[in-house]
Amino acid sequence: MAPDASDADQRISAGSIRQRKGGVPIVCLTAYTYPVARLLDDHVDLLLVGDSVAMVLHGHKTTLGASLEMMIAHGQAVMRGSAKACVVVDMPAGSYEATPRQAVASARRIVKETGCQAVKLEGGVAVARQIAAIVAAGIPVMGHIGLLPQSVESDGGYKIKGRSEDNVAALFRDADAVEKAGAFSVVIEGTVETVAADLTRHISIPTIGIGASSDCDGQILVIDDMVGLTVDRVPKFVKQYADLRSVISGAAASYAAEVRNRTFPGPGHVFPAATDKNDTLDKA
């Protein structure tokens, strides 16, 4: 599944993302499918195959519904659809927390079966040993601190971080631990704006904000949220740049009406009897 040499030469590497600290903001979006990866690839620096796929495409209530097999399948699709972006695949809950050995085995499987450039895992101090072990195995790691979706059940919901002095101190410890362990960048999610900005200035690796601060070194959103396709809860921090819910609903309504009144398929969508025997399904 690894891309060929020409593909690899074109791709933005994890190392080049690391070098973007303090420079032009890093543009990131999630992607889960081949066509979306193709559409986004020219516009972004990094595509994250996020475990949010469990919610967005599979209908689970939380990201805990993601499995290693699910992440690999979607990672393969995104790698087929992209040629330029740095592709990072989330490590799902249960695939890395137990031991560094488990984390390395899972990360190796993801990279081997998808050809992605890096993996991402959630946590700071608690998973520093796992990050260090994966990096030592030659696999770049993106960290993730602040609000941790994989911990939503134990955390009692999606709670904004950085509201208390103790929590701010813990965030700084997590950021330091992720950097020291060798991560090439770190996502800061759902964190008070000023705290996220301070964290960005505090560490030497790029920070990628989501519900954090414009001072972060880059930004990421879930693609379905960004294009107005999410049908359930949309987080407050999302800016919707399109309204695909209405576009798709309107198109389905038009299609249904034409099928029911027999105006579709029309003459241009069927094959007349007197035609070239070598014709195909491709449009003329």
Automatic annotation (TrEMBL):
Pathway terms, separated by semicolons: Cofactor biosynthesis; (R)-pantothenate biosynthesis; (R)-pantoate from 3-methyl-2-oxobutanoate: step 1/2
GO biological process annotation, one example: methylation
A GO term, aspect molecular function: methyltransferase activity
Catalysis: reaction(s): (6R)-5,10-methylene-5,6,7,8-tetrahydrofolate + 3-methyl-2-oxobutanoate + H2O = 2-dehydropantoate + (6S)-5,6,7,8-tetrahydrofolate
Residue sites binding 3-methyl-2-oxobutanoate per the record: 51-52, 90, 120
GO CC field: cytoplasm
Source organism, top-level taxon: Bacteria
Entry cofactors: Mg(2+)
Pfam families, alphabetized: Pantoate_transf
InterPro entries given in the database record: Pantoate_hydroxy_MeTrfase, Pyrv/PenolPyrv_kinase-like_dom, Pyrv_kinase-like_dom_sf
EC number: 2.1.2.11
Enzyme class, first EC level, given as a word: transferase
Main location: cytoplasm
Cofactor detail note: Binds 1 Mg(2+) ion per subunit.
Active site per the UniProt annotation: 189 (proton acceptor)
This protein's UniProt keywords: Cytoplasm, Magnesium, Metal-binding, Methyltransferase, Pantothenate biosynthesis, Transferase
Subcellular compartments: Cytoplasm
Binding site for Mg(2+): 51, 90, 122
Family: Belongs to the PanB family.
HAMAP family linked to this entry: PanB (MF_00156)
Function: Catalyzes the reversible reaction in which hydroxymethyl group from 5,10-methylenetetrahydrofolate is transferred onto alpha-ketoisovalerate to form ketopantoate.
Alphabetized PANTHER family for the sequence: 3-METHYL-2-OXOBUTANOATE HYDROXYMETHYLTRANSFERASE
Oligomeric form and interacting partners: Homodecamer; pentamer of dimers.
Name the UniProt record assigns to this protein: 3-methyl-2-oxobutanoate hydroxymethyltransferase
Species this protein is from: Mesorhizobium metallidurans STM 2683
Lineage: Bacteria, Pseudomonadati, Pseudomonadota, Alphaproteobacteria, Hyphomicrobiales
